[in-house]
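Exercise 7. Given the encoded structure of a 750-residue chain, write a plausible sequence.
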């Protein structure tokens, strides 16, 4: 029985196994009166060999048939995802070489045999799935919508004055920066140069009759409203309460944003800020904080806004690459991805890189498809904007560069035509880049910017010593100082560290145990979605010659190579944020392709298949949201200082907070957050001896909340219960291991 797609179904495989025809062998008849025993044995063995050969041939045909089915490889991907997170695998004795591989590359995997075996299954299944579908289906290649009139013929016109005006304004900005001025009028002139140049390229396209409309239908508008509103509601849910702590050095970004919002800190927008990141990101955070009130919520909401805004260009890009269904799926999978949720709700500037990268790729793809200089210009502007936010946004430049090589080599795009478009892109990029580079060349010490890159490079000696024994490292490795950073030269160690980066980075998208900070508790691709991400990745690999798939591949692979594999201590999930849209698009492509394949094989069950796919997406969303809002918060518990701060945030009336801690009382200590954020709390630290001997410390007209350590609980509780009349609320705070780290005692005022 052959299926609708022309393949062989499971029934036909079984039928061929049971009904395999054998050729009859003519055996000599026994002679009368002779000894026929040897003849009977020979005939029996001949029959056995015949049937054995027939069964082997049928089994080989069945195996070949199974290897041509996409379900076989989809099953391998599912099996691989299960195995990769197991503690052990069967036949562990035969897989001992994987432990040796783990030690050689310093992989430091908690379950090396299971993780590496599982990822091999994932990779084979993903590539096999993609190749199997590519063999049975064909797609029309995308390319320029239609030949466009030559650009240069349309450029020289009376509208060239717009271009000249833009260049003149840029020159004024550069001269002002050199003279030491970058105030309000300089910024106005700089921003004014952008619409002038944009208008010039827009008019150029109109003269060339280039279609610039995005063709936004009512369905697109409705879906965008659902995506944006739904994204804002979900990502901003309980924004001040979850997470109930500040992560590491996150507070530095708050101090800069607060100072800018209050007008006490006014650096140039071209200057550097926290940890030599561009200060423009802090200006953005400060503007949002000023608009909504200088609070923890508004500061975090700045990240929410820019993260959700990146969904708009992602929707249009994926719609242009594939179709509306895949675009909707990609946007939804981004929103419910725990990786996206974690960084969209923090005060870091990291998530700001998503918008310029996604917008740059959207405009560049539109520019190539429509041969539009205006979209080339917008792409350049988006890449230029990436220079002003988190450094990972600069990955858009190499992605576009690699895609241009593809256009020249494989698509045979005329060199002059590509250069004309890149000239328009360069005009937008330079309008944003030149003032920044001129200012930083004059005002920012060069070693600051150089050391920022070198401290994350895999050939940094600090990383080498951390991975190898310090004695062995220093004995045979050549090194040199570049500023304050020491870099080393040793090809063998390079090979080991790069191998470590490749394996750990790829594993992080499917392995739950490699992401252990920033409120991450699962693989980067997310629970369940990791399976479909691998299927989509396999489809892109199998169809890499088509531009739509190649763009996703370049986006993902260039991102993880430059931002994680070549970095220290991979996987660097804080750096690889720009690949989130590509990762989610691959997962959406995996779901969509699987659904289309099922419908092609079983068209009668099309409605059932679509319904199951909807339920699957809902399940992925529920599991992803639960992973961040529930599982993550159970694992990442606040420390003592954050417990006090969030207790102050939750107060509904003026309350006196008291920490019983002798050492901090001597230091006149106060939590950093209570000095930075406005709350309804006053705070003081006292020693246990003061609490036990000074009755005035227990008298207050307002409610009081005492914090103390579990070792002091018995004595402090007795003192509070006898010294403060009335009822009280006692709460114990635990760490991840379930150990009590702090106790609070809330008593009403007298």
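Solution.
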């Amino acid at each position: 029985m052959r299926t609708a797609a022309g393949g062989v179904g499971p029934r036909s495989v079984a039928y061929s196994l049971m009904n395999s025809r054998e050729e009859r062998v003519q055996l000599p008849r026994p002679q009368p009166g002779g000894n026929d025993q040897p003849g009977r044995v020979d005939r029996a063995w001949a029959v056995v060999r015949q049937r054995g050969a027939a069964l082997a041939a049928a089994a080989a045909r069945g195996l070949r048939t199974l290897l041509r089915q996409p379900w076989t490889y989809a099953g391998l991907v599912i099996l691989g995802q299960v195995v990769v997170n197991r503690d052990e695998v069967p036949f562990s004795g035969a897989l001992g070489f994987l432990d040796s591989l783990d030690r050689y590359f310093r992989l430091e995997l908690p379950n090396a045999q299971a993780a590496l075996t599982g990822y091999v299954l994932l990779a084979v299944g993903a590539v096999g799935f993609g190749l199997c579908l590519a063999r049975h289906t064909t797609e029309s290649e995308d390319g320029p919508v239609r030949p466009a009139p030559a650009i240069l013929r349309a450029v020289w016109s009376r509208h060239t004055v717009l271009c000249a005006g833009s260049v003149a304004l840029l020159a004024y900005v550069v001269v002002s920066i050199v003279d030491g001025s970058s105030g309000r009028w300089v910024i106005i002139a700089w921003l004014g140069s952008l619409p002038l140049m944009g208008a010039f390229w827009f008019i150029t396209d109109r003269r060339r009759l280039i279609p610039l409309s995005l063709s936004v239908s009512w369905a697109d508008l409705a879906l965008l409203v659902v995506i944006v509103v739904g994204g804002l509601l979900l990502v901003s849910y309980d924004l001040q309460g979850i997470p109930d702590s500040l992560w590491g050095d996150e507070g530095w970004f708050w101090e800069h944003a607060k100072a800018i919002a209050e007008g006490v800190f006014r650096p140039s927008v071209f200057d550097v800020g926290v940890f030599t990141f561009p200060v423009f990101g802090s200006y953005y955070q400060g503007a949002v904080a000023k608009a909504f009130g200088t609070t923890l919520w508004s500061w975090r909401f700045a990240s929410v806004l820019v993260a959700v805004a990146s969904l708009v260009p992602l929707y249009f890009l994926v719609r242009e690459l594939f179709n509306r269904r895949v675009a909707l799926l990609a946007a939804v999978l981004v929103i419910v991805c725990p990786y996206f949720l974690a960084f969209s709700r923090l005060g870091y500037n990291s998530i700001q890189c998503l918008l310029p990268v996604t917008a740059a790729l959207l405009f560049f793809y539109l520019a190539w498809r429509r041969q539009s200089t205006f979209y080339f210009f917008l792409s350049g502007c988006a890449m230029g904007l990436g220079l002003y936010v988190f450094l990972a946004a600069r990955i858009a430049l190499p992605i576009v560069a690699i895609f241009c090589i593809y256009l020249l080599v494989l698509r045979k795009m005329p060199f002059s035509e590509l250069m004309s478009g890149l000239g328009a892109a360069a005009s937008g990029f330079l309008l944003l880049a030149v003032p920044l580079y001129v200012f930083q060349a004059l005002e920012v010490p060069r070693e600051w910017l150089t050391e920022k890159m070198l401290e994350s490079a895999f050939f940094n000696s600090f990383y080498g010593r951390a991975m190898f024994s310090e004695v062995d490292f220093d004995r045979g490795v050549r090194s040199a100082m570049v500023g304050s950073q020491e870099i080393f030269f040793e090809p063998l160690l390079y090979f080991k560290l790069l191998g470590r980066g490749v394996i750990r980075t790829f594993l992080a998208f499917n392995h739950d145990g490699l992401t252990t900070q920033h409120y991450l508790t699962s693989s980067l691709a997310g629970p369940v979605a990791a399976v479909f991400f691998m299927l989509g990745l396999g489809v892109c690999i199998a169809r890499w010659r088509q531009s739509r798939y190649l763009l996703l591949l370049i986006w993902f692979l260039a991102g993880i190579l430059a931002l994680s594999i070549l970095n220290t201590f991979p996987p660097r999930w804080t750096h690889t944020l720009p690949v989130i849209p590509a990762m989610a698009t691959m997962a959406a492509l995996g779901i969509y392709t699987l659904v289309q394949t099922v419908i092609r094989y079983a068209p009668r069950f099309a409605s059932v298949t679509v319904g199951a796919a909807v339920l699957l997406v809902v399940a992925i969303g529920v599991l992803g949201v639960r992973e961040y809002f529930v599982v993550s918060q159970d694992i990442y518990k606040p420390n003592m200082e954050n417990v006090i701060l969030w207790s102050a945030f939750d107060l509904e009336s003026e309350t006196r907070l008291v920490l019983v801690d002798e050492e901090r009382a001597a230091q006149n200590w106060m939590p950093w957050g209570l000095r930075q954020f406005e709350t309804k709390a006053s705070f003081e630290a006292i020693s246990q001896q003061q609490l036990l001997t000074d009755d005035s410390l227990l008298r207050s007209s307002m409610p009081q909340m005492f914090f103390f350590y579990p070792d002091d609980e018995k004595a402090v509780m007795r003192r509070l219960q006898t010294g403060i009349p009335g009822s009280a609320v006692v709460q114990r705070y635990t760490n991840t291991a379930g150990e009590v780290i702090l106790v609070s005692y809330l008593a009403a005022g007298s």
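Remark. Residues 37-67 form the longest helix (31 residues). Students should compare their own answers with the one above.
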